[in-house]
Amino acid sequence: MSRWLPELADAEVGDVSVRELLGHQGGVIRDGVVADFWQRGLPFPDRAEILRMAAEEGRVFAPNEHFKYSNVGYSLLGLVIEAAAGVSYAQYVVDHIVRPLGLDDLGPEWDADRADDFAAGHNAALRAGASRRVIPHVDTRAMAAATGWFGTARDLSAYFAAHTPGDDTLVSDAAKRLLQRRESDIEYAGVLRHYGLGFDVRDLDGVHLVGHSGGYPGHITRTWLDLDDDLVVSVLTNAIDGPADVLATGAIGILRLALAQADREPAEAAVTGRFASMWSVADLVDLGGAVAVLHPADPDPARSAEVLDVDDGTLRLPSRASFGASGEPVSVERDAAGEVVSIRLSGMSMWPFERYRYALSTEQPSELLKGMAL
């Protein structure tokens, strides 16, 4: 690295390679000894400060001793790009990423001229029902390569789609194989994760996903590229504790569940929608070839989904070993106009969600929900 950043020639981190930084194998400190810029207590570091942090605080482990995620390391990579290209990091990535993809709402750093376009970020809710406050946007300066980017879910989806095999808009297939293969295994608390070069790598029920999360004061994101099914899902949240990973991973699972039903005969007059009871909320979803019961409160709705069987026009929960009502019918009650009034799932009545919610807001909900005392 000191080839491109001679200021680090005498520092312990000076011999860390670009590849080691890309794979977070350089042993470099994560955010610095004092990192309160992440909660707006300090300005984000400029070039001189990043180099000082790297020189004085940078070495934590020897290269390739441990995987150690480092925003300081990726900030240094931004400085390496500037030195190698002879232009600013911002100009280089606009010329080589943003413009080739033809995107108007993707960029490497907060732009004050577009302040009205940016979603407001919020702090974490530290207790149930706690109010949130808006976190003002900030220029991340020399840390832009690690955190400064802005964009939309569409833009991020377009960027990750360019990393599918056969698309040479940004990088070659040979480079993709290097970026996306497992460079590091990280096991903690019984969970095994993997990292490539700039990409998270995850197996989801045997499917190969590559992607990354994103963090910026007030925002958390997650994007996944499903290489097996040619899918991209991107979720952007404007709160520090936003469940972006859960939502994106859950969406990938639901899409894959739908693809698996594509060859099935569609159920006639399929009942779809969100239904509620005193016990739960359930979604009946038309997957294109079948109707499934999804439980939206589950972190991974696809894993707990029940794809309904059709028996002489009757919807029925699948026959299997189960603690639930497997093999039993899902009945539907309609009014004279053919609108669904209620369903009966696992033997209990459930009503269209909005109707149920409205009924609970009245003084006599039982009059709206078939005399049920709720």
Brief account:
The protein is an alpha+beta fold and 374 residues long.
Give your account of this protein's structure.
There is one protein chain. The protein has 374 residues and is an alpha+beta fold. It has helices spanning 18-22, 47-57, 71-85, 89-101, 144-148, 153-161, 173-180, 244-260, 353-360; strands spanning 121-122, 134-135, 184-188, 191-195, 200-204, 207-216, 219-226, 231-237, 273-276, 281-286, 291-294, 306-307, 309-311, 314-316, 329-334, 340-345, 348-352. The strands form three sheets. A nine-stranded antiparallel β-sheet has the order 12-11-10-9-17-16-15-14-13. Strands 3-4-5-6-7-8 form a six-stranded antiparallel β-sheet, with helices on both faces. A two-stranded antiparallel ribbon has the order 1-2. The longest helix is centred in the last third of the chain and has 17 residues, at 244-260. It is elongated and about 80 Å long. The termini are far apart.
